[in-house]
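<purpose> Linking amino acid order to shape
<body> The protein record starts here
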Amino acid sequence: MTTTAIQQSAVIGKEQLLKHWQGHRNLTRRVIEAFPEKELFEFSVAGMRPFSDLAIEMLSIGGPALKAIAERAATPYTEEGIVPKTKEDLLKLWDAETATINTYFDQIPEEDFSETFNLFGQYEFPIYQNILYFIDNEIHHRGQGYVYLRALNIQPPFFWER
């Protein structure tokens, strides 16, 4: 693990960043809720993965990555063991992961956010950039969920209501 630091100016603080991320997580949770059970696990457009698979990817990134950062442990990316069978199972996993994110986010000192971390043994970026990647990845996949919901004639939640 490299611990090179870069010069960074604060635009928002640590708690504001977590609140922003949790707003996105809350919105993504509402997207999961909007899906009918069967379509959550089976429906896709143009060969893309079903939204349940996209949610599993999101679950395998945020909490596990923050845990690795907080513990300074290089752990490989894996989706192993995340196998919800129902929408209720997926929502329970989502809520548990939100608690995990809160726990490990609090363990990372704000002054460490500019230190680099080798995420999943693949990506060497400052911690704050890794966290922004987690948020960007979620927004990207939630956008796919919006396309799916609209294709199913279901009104998705308003994106600005986080």
Notes: The first strand starts at residue 116 and ends at 119.
